Amino acid sequence: MSGLDIIKDVAKQTLSIRTIAGNLDDSLWDRSQRLVRNVEYICKLPEVESIGSQIDRLCLHTATYFSDTGLAQFLQSGKSVDSLAASSANAEEILDLCSKVVEEKLASHLDSSKIKKILRFLSESTNQFTKVPEAMILSDARNLDDMGAVGIFNELRRYVIHGKCVSDALKIWKRKTDYRYWQARLKKSFRFESVRTLAEQRLSSAEFFMNQLKVENSAHDLGEMVTGKTDFAVPNSR
């Protein structure tokens, strides 16, 4: 088994958590593999290849596999995802947990200099102004995962877990749209212009889906079929 295979195996064990019902939840492990695929392709972009010789691929891939291990620890302790989203203090706590997991789980597999690098990449990836190439790549890989169909899937999954319905999801989406949340993410969250462009395309797909969800939730298409009008008043279900 290669060094990276061992790291992947350790990451999988750490990211696979038990639900309240006792079932195994592999969603974070699945996400880590998706993030690594993002990282691999971002490394091949022309604007990134120019610095390719400087990139420590092993440490970057390891940081990517372990980037959600702090969240796994956080959730395993029974704390709420809602509180995570609501408080920046939790983000710091999760990064601290992640660092501790890396130091504990990888000490027997990697030398201290590599672990120090991995911790630096993880920490710097949360810094909007970082100039560390590996941290910039990891940051873009993670932010891209929040856009498009995958982002919507994960949002809806969290809503279902917390007992929210379709109407709740639409209200939250509208609130984010009204406050230009996604536009701010596009502007501030990406370091590489080509990744930002792809994120815009993915966001358009997400918007199409949410618009369709709104149509079906209000039965607007059915009302249009019945009345032959597109500007009819949708009846209140209450």
Account of the protein in words:
- The protein is mostly helical.
- It is built from 14 helices and 2 strands; from the N terminus they run αββααααααααααααα.
- It has helices at residues 3-15, 27-42, 46-49, 57-66, 69-76, 81-86, 88-106, 112-124, 133-145, 148-161, 166-178, 181-188, 193-218, 220-227; strands spanning 17-18, 24-25.
- The chain has a two-stranded antiparallel sheet with strand order 1-2.
- α10 (148-161) packs across α13.
- The N and C termini lie far apart (60 Å).
Helix content: over 70%
Counted by DSSP, the helix tally is 14
What is the rounded distance between the termini?
60 Å
**Major sheet, described briefly?**
2 strands, antiparallel
Tally the beta strands: 2
- Element pattern in H and E: HEEHHHHHHHHHHHHH
Q: Which regions have little confidence, pLDDT < 50, spanning 5+ residues?
A: 82-89
Chain oligomer state:
single chain
Report the portion of residues in β strands.
Answer: under 5%
Classify the secondary structure makeup into a structural class. Answer: mainly alpha
Sum up the overall morphology in one term.
globular
Main sheet: strand order:
1-2
What is this entry, summarized?
The chain is an all-alpha fold and 238 residues long. Helix content is 72%, strand content 2%.
Question: How is this fold's topology laid out?
Answer:
Blueprint: H1 3-15, E1 17-18, E2 24-25, H2 27-42, H3 46-49, H4 57-66, H5 69-76, H6 81-86, H7 88-106, H8 112-124, H9 133-145, H10 148-161, H11 166-178, H12 181-188, H13 193-218, H14 220-227
Antiparallel strand pairs: 1-2
